[in-house]
Each structure stands twice: as structure tokens, then as C-alpha cells.
């Protein structure tokens, strides 16, 4: 099905795409929508976020064939050159950007099989780098100097294309404070497991264990707070909520499991009673 393109000033592309974990019909439907949209608009390459799917997927048309790159990552690059580039996100904008003419790519296909590919064609290498930038929430204007960027945005404003000021996907979220504080507490919980390696007094060991007992429920409370704030933010920034939700569950599970593991470790390794 042909989907609507994400065109400036729609800021959904500022969101980082999530890696594909399930290689099933949902993925294949996204690929089909990308293909249909590329065909309808005569587009040679597309990242999934360009039609508002927040997944790390790139589709490139070469001749009559469509090459699918799922979760692509560049693991090697060389041959820096100046690439003249445009983007469907910014109408009638062309900029010169330094790119690598040779790259080594690792990616998965639609069935989850891992592939490695050496790309030595400069044009294709530049296209892949541009699309991978999009999967990380970047765009071609992030690659130019401040003055050039401002001139381009002023020119777009002259055409009536103004950036949105309310309810856009933020580049920084206050929910990150929950994660930052939680990670610091987890660090000290993990550090406390080294207590048996030192000859601390019984009182010191008791204090360390008390710290672990207090911090574990505190982390759970922080993750609950993170969840509810993320829900609030997802409702506030509706056009970007899908790319937020994709990461939130993983953040909560990883840190809650880590806290539980450290708490169990403290019970057996640090508990002085």
C-alpha cells in the first residue's frame, strides 16, 4: 500500500528507528508498503521512517530489483569524497556532504539471516550512508555547517515550510533522567558485589547491604515512574509516539532484570546476617 511521505516540517524523522527483532508478516508488510511508495513516487532509495515506520529498514532499487537491508550497520569505511545529495524530506534542497566511497556493511535479510557486503560504488555507498543516518534520527542538514543550514531553512520558510514548535518529537526527553539515575544506582549495586573481596568491618558490610536493600525497590519505583512519564510523553508527541514506545519496554525490562540480579547477588554475597 502506498504511504504518505514524511516531508519537512514533519519532524518524525528526528526519532531513532528501532532494530527489527521479529522477521514475520509485519516486517514483510512494511517492506511491501515501502516498495509500493517508492514505485508510486519514483524513488530509488528509502528508509522506513520516511513513511513513518520507525524501524531500521532500508530499501534500495537497482534496475528492476529491490535490495532489502534490515538492521544495517557500517563496520568499515574508506575513500572519503564529496557527495552531492538531496532528500525527499527537504524539497528542492541539494548539499555537498563528505561521504565514504567504500564501505563494508553488515545487515539481515527479511528472514533474519545475517549478510556482509563490500560496497565500492561511490553512489550506492553514499545512498546507504544517507539512509542509515535517517535510521539514527539524522538528516542531510545535520552534515552541513550552521550557516548553510540556516540559509536552507530560511529558504524553506520562504516557501511556507516552517518547523513545528509544539508537540514535535523531542531530541531530548525528561524521561532520560529516570534512566540516568537508575544506571548510576545499578553501577553502585554492582560494585557492592565486590564486598567479599575486601576485609570490611561488620558494620560497613551491614551498611552496604542496607544500601542494596533500599536501592532495589527504589529502582523499581524509578522504572514505574519512567513508564508513566513515557506514556504521558507518547500522548503529547503523538506523531512520534511509536518510535518512543519501541524502546521504552526494553529500557524497563533490562534495568529491572539487572536490579533483581544484583539484589539476589547481594543477598548471597553481601548479606552479613
What's a quick, concise take on this entry?
With 273 residues, the chain is an alpha+beta fold. The chain has helices at 25-41, 122-135, 146-158, 175-192, 202-236, 241-269; strands at 45-47, 57-62, 65-87, 90-108, 114-119. It contains six helices and five strands.
How would you describe this structure to a colleague?
- GO terms for molecular function: peptide deformylase activity.
- The chain has helices spanning 25-41, 122-135, 146-158, 175-192, 202-236, 241-269, and strands at residues 45-47, 57-62, 65-87, 90-108, 114-119.
- The chain has 273 residues and is an alpha+beta fold.
- It has two domains: 12-158, Peptide Deformylase, CATH 3.90.45; 175-269.
- The protein is elongated.
- Mean pLDDT is 89; it is low at 238-243.
What's the arrangement of secondary structure elements?
Layout: H1 25-41, E1 45-47, E2 57-62, E3 65-87, E4 90-108, E5 114-119, H2 122-135, H3 146-158, H4 175-192, H5 202-236, H6 241-269
Antiparallel strand pairs: 1-2, 2-3, 3-4, 4-5
Helix pairs in contact: 4-5, 4-6, 5-6
